[in-house]
Design goal:
Helix 1 crosses helix 2 and helix 1 crosses helix 4. The N and C termini lie far apart (82 Å). The chain has 200 residues and is an all-alpha fold. 68% of the residues lie in helices and 0% in strands. The radius of gyration is 22 Å and the shape is elongated. The chain has two domains: 45 residues, Homeodomain-like (Arc Repressor Mutant, subunit A); 120 residues, Tetracycline Repressor, domain 2 (Orthogonal Bundle), CATH 1.10.357.10.
């Protein structure tokens, strides 16, 4: 008697008591998102397959199936972060038409909020990891190039480089300071950096 063919993802438990195979096409992405969560809370040193599996609510073997080593998981997670961050950063400037609107967006980036703070922590974790692992520097350069390209549309390339450096420093200061800078002082610093390269 011929055995019936069961479509992939719809297998049922057999006589040996095997569990049905779970159809989960988004599992790899969930694992990467979970890895980023762990990087935010525990840093690079605290990243483990087990923590990521727990955070993603998947079996440990599923993490090691998709990512053979911890280094691979870390690199792929940071790559996923850069991809998402690049898209979000560009979207944040889509409504900018004037210099004042540009400054408002930049001040908001520095002051941030919960989601921006999370992104900033991941960014600095990536930069710190890249100091020790040169293989990650392609990702830091990718992010730098992308952010400066967005800024350059409004300021020109030279001013964009200066502004990008200012923003990185001010964001780090905002994360670490116990006495946050006022919105007025942040705005004044950005205006001063923009002034030499803007004619309007």
């Amino acid at each position: 008697m011929e055995r019936a063919i069961v479509p992939a993802g719809q297998e049922t438990a057999g006589r040996e008591g095997r569990r049905p195979r779970r159809h989960d096409p988004q599992r790899r992405t969930r694992i990467l998102d979970a890895a980023l969560d762990v990087l935010v809370t525990d840093g690079v040193a605290g990243l483990t397959h087990r923590k990521v599996a727990s955070r993603a609510d998947v079996p440990l073997g599923s993490v090691t199936y998709h990512f053979a080593s911890l280094a691979e998981l870390r690199t792929q997670a940071f790559g996923w972060y850069v991809e998402q961050r690049t898209a979000a950063y560009e979207t944040g400037f889509t409504e900018v038409k004037t210099r004042e609107q540009l400054i408002d967006v930049l001040v908001g980036i520095v002051q941030g909020g919960p989601s921006r703070q999370r992104s900033a922590v991941l960014g600095f974790e990536l930069h710190l990891a890249a100091l020790r692992d040169p293989s990650l520097r392609a990702l830091t350069q990718q992010w730098t190039n992308a952010s400066r390209a967005v800024l350059a549309r409004f300021t020109g390339p030279e001013a964009a480089a200066r502004l990008d450096a200012l923003l990185e420093g001010m964001i780090m200061q905002a994360l670490l300071s116990t006495e946050p800078e006022s919105r007025e002082r942040i705005r004044a610093a950005i205006e001063q950096t923009l002034a030499p390269a803007t004619g309007s």
